[in-house]
Amino acid sequence: MLxxxxxxxxxxxxxxxxLIFGTKKLRTLGGDLGGAVKGFKKAMSDEEKNKETDKxxxxxxxxxxxxxxxxxxxxxxx
Length: 78
Hints:
The protein is mainly α and 78 residues long.
């Protein structure tokens, strides 16, 4: 039982929903919901990739800055 609702009550609700909306509309709704979930997951994975790319770019910029700084320090000591 889920929160006081038995399996028979759930089946009755399912039958009423099917009668009201029809199976075609429910299939369409399920497909739309599935597409939305896929889109959300794709957006989340793209965001993670963007964060990793940004981190790599920041590290490269830090490395370039350090190299330039080290070169300027060597030039000053000469």
